[in-house]
Amino acid sequence: MGVLVDVLSWKGIFVVLITYLAGTIFYRLTLHPLAGFPGPKLAAITRWYEGYYDIVLNGQYTFKIKELHDKYGPVIRISPYELHVNDPAFLNTLYNHDIMKKYAWTYDAHTAKGSTAFTVDHDLHKARRQPLNGFFSKAKVASRQDMIQMYADKLCRRISQYVGTTFDLGAASLAFTQDVANDFIISKSYGSLDREDLDVSMLVFLQGAGREQYQDTKYLVDLATSNDKIKHRRTIIDEILESKLSPSDKTVERIYEDVSTISNAAFETTASVIRPVLFHVFSNPTILQRLRAELESVITTDLKTLEQLPYLTSVLKEGFRLGGGLSTRLQRVSEKDLFYGKWRIPAGHPVGMTPLLMHTDNEVHHNAKSFLPERWIDAETRKRSERGFAPFSKGSRICLGMHLAWAELYIVVATLVQRFDFSFPNATAEDFVEPTARDAGPKTQASGMAWRALIAGGERVTAAG
């Protein structure tokens, strides 16, 4: 009798489970507010569709999304709860200054949820970002150009030691941006450019300098709140502590989350642009000669002068287009309905766009996978490409470090182009277009790829003084 009861119980559980699953599938395919949007049925039923491409196939869902757009159109349903749009005409609708939240599910796995970058709520994000805006302003960055140039010169001194042989310029670019970011943000360098291996594995930052950075944050908080202050350069810690934020947002732990996420993003993303720029400039004699001629035409190479050079600016924009576009989608959740063509996107549902997909779309950028600075000089092609150019996102969540990234690129590229000759025997253009399965993991891993530059001899190769 007991066995029969057990069998009936398991039968009941099985029936309930099947009924629940069938009901869920029916609801998501027919009654859910997103049921009418095109896309694969399996993606509409379960997140495991996305999980297969990102977990089993190592981060390939972005490129599967591109295939789905080719099949289903510019707006598609990519999960039971989420939409994706691939049309630059929708950029300003999605990324604006209206009340928009981030998609909380995306940040569930992050450990620094208190950081400004990972703040989901619109109003809280606005409050946390307010004291940081001035610190990262264009004027503030311009005032630190001597610091950026100092690290560019240090980079040159390292490179000059390897004339006639190969040098890991990929790791060096990351070491340069890491030193600049930490100096700018907390007024301290952790000496990546000074280390023999240039911190190529990033273990020093993640395990050593990460802990040291936390201790430095604690020290700077104590210093800024003590009565016996000593003179020191202002950091973002001072800006946060002197802001109108609540006491809970001024704890050491919360401030460190901002310090770590901002500095991490600042060096990873900028280095990912430096690499393709250097590769394409030094691999194309026409681009290199034209860029050198432009740089030689000016008396001084201060930041303001460099920003006025049209060809250098065009070269950097191509670098941002091919190397600076995030390969992950940036979702927003609107408190009001959004409209795209005939579609009404109901309020409260996340919808995202992926900069990388727009940056490499032939419909937006002619011959999109080619490095063509001229597209930013010709008025017609520039207008076309500007529509689908968003390396820093847009709206209220636009990248905090945008001006710092531009300044670093202007200074380091101009410096290296005038002083060295490189060739890249082990790299191809495809290495700098879009990630593949082999390097689709976190950018810290991709950034450590050892692509090496052969440093040619000649009078142009000089130690930076």
TrEMBL record:
Q: Name one GO molecular function term.
A: heme binding
Q: Does the keyword DNA repair apply?
A: no
Q: What is this protein called?
A: Cytochrome P450
Q: Which UniProt keywords apply?
A: Heme, Iron, Membrane, Metal-binding, Monooxygenase, Oxidoreductase, Transmembrane, Transmembrane helix
Q: Record-annotated residues binding heme? A: 399
As for family, the record states: Belongs to the cytochrome P450 family.
Give the transmembrane region(s): 12-31
* Cofactor(s) essential for the protein: heme
Q: From what organism does this protein derive?
A: Xylaria multiplex
